Fold this protein.
Amino acid sequence: MTAALDYFLMSWLDPHLMFLTAAGTFAGIYIGAIPGLSVTMAVSILISFTFKWDMNSALAVISGIYLGGVYGGSRSAILLNIPGAPSAVATGMDGYPLAKRGEAGAAIGLTTVVSVFGGFIGILALAAAAPLVSELALKFAPRDYLLLAMWGILLVGSLSGDSLAKGIFAGAIGVLIGMVGLDPMTAEPRFTFGTVTLTAGISYIAAMIGFFGVAEVLVQLHELHIKAVRQDVSKILPSFGLIRKYLPLATRTSALGVVVGALPGAGGDIAALMAYDHAKRTVKNPSRPFGQGAYEGLVAPESANNAAVGGAYIPMLTLGIPGDAVTAVIIGAMYIHGLKPGPMLMIETPHLFWFQVGSLALANIFLLIFGLTGIRIFAKIVEAPKPILLPLILVLSAVGAYAINNNPADVYWMLGFGVFGYFLKMYGFQVGPVILGIILGPLMDRSFRQAMISAGEDPVQFAGEFLTSPLSAAILAALVLSMASQSSWWRKLRGKRDMHEPLARELEDSASAGNV
Amino acid sequence: MQTIRKSVATFAMLALAGGAMAQSYPEREISGVIQWSAGGATDVVSRAITPHVEEIIGKKIVMQNKPGGVGAIATNFVYQQSADGYTLLYGAENPQLHAVMGIANLDYSKFYPINILGRGKVVVIANNDKPWKSFRELLDDIEANPGKIKMGTAGPGSVPHTVSAMITAVAKLPVTAVPFDGDGPGLTALQGGHIDFMASSLGSAAEHIKAGRMRVLAVLSDTAMTDSALGNIPPITDALPGVAKYLPWGPFYGVFAKRDIPEEAKAKLSAAFRKAAQSPQFIELMNGRHNEIVNLSGEEADAFLKKWQSVTAWILQGAGLAKHSPAEFGIPKP
């Protein structure tokens, strides 16, 4: 145990490792904040030039970049309505309205605190329950991924704004975009029109940069004459009372983040969206209605996506199975450094596990420090003159889109989707459901077919497996419950006494508008 | 205007000639394009050998991943670059099957094989809870319970897919084949009990086998394999002697450049990679991932590639899995 503690504290006591962790975290925040510069990319570039370093130094920097990068995505989402990473898509929903009210400072402050909280829950789960969680993750069969994706796709209801029909339309476009490329199972070209370029499919990050970044820039061109909102940066740190109020929600969404992050087929992006949806369904009296700057809309996704980092490390360190794209790159790096990531890693090199836990914890502390300093300057970005800010965002978006796969086609997609997204936005279509469709469409496609083939292509057997497997039955029950809890008969059953009058009316309106 | 144009042209010619005289290959950084995403098997092998090559040629090789289209994107990209020897393709076996699979028409015959770095071993593994002690027992169980046993597979031309085609060619294999995105996701599903057995590259499975999380039934070879950590693995030919005619077979990794790059670049690159493949660090990595080092270049590598393509394409054709007959592309029968 003392040996474990020694390794845990290694990066805390060695100034060199400490510096690397700090530098990684700092860089990560900015990499995450710039749309398109992704953590995966930063880590894979880093691997090339840490080839000659020892593994510990490389892991220390990566821990920082990873945690910082996941958090950093929220910055641009809040300030510019442009998520810096897919896991920050939900953050902009309520973060940007807050910035428009001049509360960017407070929004970033709260986001930082809950991100760090989520990060610690993830690290705690990694340290205390890694073998348990990884065994649970292995239990997820294709049909469970299908349920998860179905649960996720219901979020269209939360993300579609005024019109559910327009939301579903946007979601369907996303699913269509996600289908382009080689069929993952048969390599049958789909919607490729005989070109090699399209066999690679359409990168969902390129689509995200287009729909959110470029389209938002184009929309904001209409507002060039409007004076920027002055940001109140006098109070950044959320009060203790506020934090305590959101602690139960953040704990629930962090737990969700850990589990979804640990699943090899789902990551922080899906965790954050599910957490946002969870908040929207369960919080009865949000600080403001969701979509207009509810603090809960920041707390839920931001705690979940940082908790997912610890989650993603769980299958990687215990089984050598990557929890997401970043951990896949780390596994590759371990091989190059002469390690053998796999189930034996924890047995043969237990110090590596504790070192990793320790450097993640340290990075998380640095995240709190760097996250809370410099907000004043950051918040000023929103006050920067639009004629300077907007072209800058466009250039960064193009760089980011190219950098995903070093493929110029991604830049064309980004521009095309930007123009398309502009028209969608002008006609009252939300772009959130498009991204949801791109992420979840292929997951549903794959997991449905795997589940159906596993059931011998027998629909009765297929349906039966949802009930006979305890895990599937539990997820199905949760899914049904979360749907039912939104229906009008459920509310009649529960009575409206415990609800605020205006909120109840609002819910009723949305229910009568066909929003189940 | 005329004079300006003339003088510019003269200047350019002079500069080119001067450059050619003063410098020899490589005079600047080389770009390395990896067919698969960061962290994958091809990526690891590519990034492991490159620093040793850089040391020998004295210039950096800037690596970038261009994944997508089972390798077609990167292959096509490198093919479109000028044949100056400054763009290298780090790839795996996949493009050799793109034509018969209807994905793309480009294969390695349009490229010069600088080095076939290594070849992966393939094993058949089973879920721990299954009773089978040998591959024969598995085959008997499959025959007794047609359609009941779930086999993991991956996209057309992948290792699990090709191995199941080989088995189908010599025996009946009435299984439920559940496709995954590759070895990794398949092995994860195997550990969760969502599939019962699967063929996989040994590199992906070795650590899980060592930890006792899955059981290895056979190695795709005609001789048994003995390993200090994995023990004795019987050959697949014990149960299915008919497979022997397709062996040796396995996925491979290599470095390629366009066919018509300058002879000097071919010679220098081949020599550098040949030497780098012998560095102890690289050998250790390849051993650790249970890859055999092949280290072939030029004509020998061409012969290796042709044989691999002919064997694999015709196996797939024989199993009815190819979209186009190999004959359409002039791929000879093995």
